[in-house]
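Handout, page 2. Input:
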Amino acid sequence: MLGRVPHLLAADAGFYSAKNEIAAHARGVKRVCIPNRSTNSADRKREQKNAGSAATSDGAPGVRAASV
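Output:
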């Protein structure tokens, strides 16, 4: 559809499933940003909270989502 694999995939929590996240990575998406509201993993919670605050893999600054 786009002619190339996107570097970033972002979706709301309604789209989250482990299957969707794995499929995106398997297709070559570098950064998958789909919140998982039912996670119990401290690492996952920390990653979701800090998403966008770190630089991307190509050195470009990350983008922080606006608060709702």
